[in-house]
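<instruction>
Derive structure tokens from the sequence

<record> Sequence and structure tokens follow
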Amino acid sequence: MTLFAIVILLILSSCLMYVAENKAQPDNFSDIPTATWWAIMTITTVGYGDVYPVTILGKIITAVIALAGVAVLALPTAIIGSA
């Protein structure tokens, strides 16, 4: 179930960032598969810094996705820890 939630979050965040940042950064967000790199780094909270949003909408989406990524990855840990 957690893997399914992560995949949905990954696809949704990639699509949202492509729409929000494509016009401002056509090199970094040229298509949805390219935006997937950003989404994986943000959801896993690694954030290399090679691709990042520059628009206000992109920064807001990034904050929400980063918090959702922490929540989705921390949930199974809490469930396993309590068992």
Observations:
- The two ends are 17 Å apart (CA to CA).
